[in-house]
Amino acid sequence: MSRTLIKKIYERSAKIGVIGLGYVGLPLAIEFFKGGFDVTGFDVDEKKVRSLEKGESYIRHVDISPIISGQAGKRGPKKDEKKAKSTINGSFSATIDFSLLGEMDCVIICVPTPLNKHREPDLSCVMDTARTIEKYLKKGQLIVLESTTYPGTTDEDVRGVLEKGGFKAGRDFCLAFSPEREDPSNKDYRIGTIPKLVGGYTRKCLLTAQALYGTIVVGTVPVSSTRVAEAAKLIENIYRSVNIALINELKVLFDRMGIDIWEAIEAASTKPFGFQAFYPGPGLGGHCIPVDPFYLAWKAKKYGFSTRLIELAGEINTLMPDYVVSKVAAVLNNAKKHVKGAKILLLGLSYKANIDDDRQSPAYRLMKKLEDMGARVSYNDPHIPVVGLTREFPQFAGRKSVKVTGKYDLILVVTAHDEYSKMDLTKFGIPIVDTRNLVKKKSRFVHKA
């Protein structure tokens, strides 16, 4: 089974299906296409398929020009496509027809793994996807989960669903876990230059998954099981969460002591060993760091273990928007103004600089908290001209980015986009609360938070 598939992978005759054409799935699908494979992207959102048909990227920092211009490797002749499958360019297609999964040799799952309202893992997207795959599962396929989750998801939950039809993982099909390691807007690293962790349900599963990813990345890092791979991904994100929480707590303390946390961090960074710089902010954003630690904390309870440090870090990071709001209130008060009725311009809606990803962005929490206090909040973000519909803050949908002017009572810097660093915000002569150390110019109007 695995030898035949591995041979097809090396020959680039294996068909690759990527489920979920979001921030993880779309770049991955493009990378496999560039590697010379026949690739089909699957998504429940027909708008994404239509955008790709038009040659339009719905994710600003993801370059789709390779699939439009046909920058792909050597491949065999293309078979006729079903009408439901939209051929974008030669061997790259996108579809909402999941029955086509039966034509794939390798299927990679890149769907969301959020938290529910009780901050517990919500695996509904993963499990629904697994149930769909099981309907069309065929012998000899490789199924890989990339979505970040707790240890045991792949070899227990997903495997349990996939085996309901009678096929057995490791015998009839291969099953693996290989976590995404995306860092949007990082110009130094991309999918192909980042080593890929791979864990297989069996050794045959591991070797097959290694063969697949080995065609597009600089190197694979095999581990002994899917659980180890799942745990490794959580370690990566929890490491960041805990250290960011530490520096956020120090920020609040040093603010009371009259110490510039940013200057202190830069000073500490001169030590050539034993220190890695982390920087404070208005709260955590993105899909990984605010979410993933809670997956392990939840799973740990099933083993009678309390992850106190992880949960404390999450609590500290979650409270950062409250600290920023208190800083805004204090700055307005010193200017003899109240939060109620104040016109506030929020700079940056995305969770990270120079991208259009607003998932879990602290900007939304800040907007809501300030508006609940009676402020009139507008936002500017060159990467997000219009707010889309979000599950947690649907009330902001449709709100549009405004121009950066001085007609406000206060400017709140939330995201350090490059566009903002080129502006002289102090020229407006109004208070600026800077959560990102964006404004380098010394001014009585600048207040770090």
**CATH architecture classification name of the largest domain:** 3-Layer(aba) Sandwich
Tally of distinct domains? 3
Taking strands numbered 1, 2, ... along the chain, how are they ordered across the largest sheet?
A: 3-4-2-1-5-6-7-8-9
* C-alpha Rg (nearest Å): 24 Å
Instruction: Tally the helices.
Output: 14
What is the overall silhouette? globular
Instruction: List the uncertain runs.
Output: 72-83
Number of strands: 14
Helix- and strand-based class? alpha/beta
Q: At the fourth CATH level, what is the homologous superfamily of the largest domain?
A: NAD(P)-binding Rossmann-like Domain
Elements, N to C (H/E): HEHEHHEEEHEHEEHEHHHHHEHEEHEE
